[in-house]
Fold:
Amino acid sequence: MSRKIYCIASFKPKPGKEDAVFKALQALEPNAHREDACLKYTVTRQIDNPFAQGESYPIVFHETWANLEAFEAHCQRREIQEFFATHLEDPSGDIEDANVCVYTDEPADYDAPRL
Structure:
């Protein structure tokens, strides 16, 4: 049974703010990596490629957490709360929009053992 949680957090910077948003998100990586249940926490930026021409927000965090409780605890950390308040919720912030989703790799009808 996998209890892992996968988070994809996409960010749309305001025009001209791409580098600032990328750097602000990179600054979150070191402390997230200190969390015992953080398995992966990497910010990426979209690049042009003829074999992958889909549309997305240009900056994406790829996160893997040991379990849902760890992900939710991460989201409640002061540093994370302040990031969203400063960069997204504040009208003067550098992020126009964000889309944060969580996923599981378990099928909906998986007969998970009870431990």
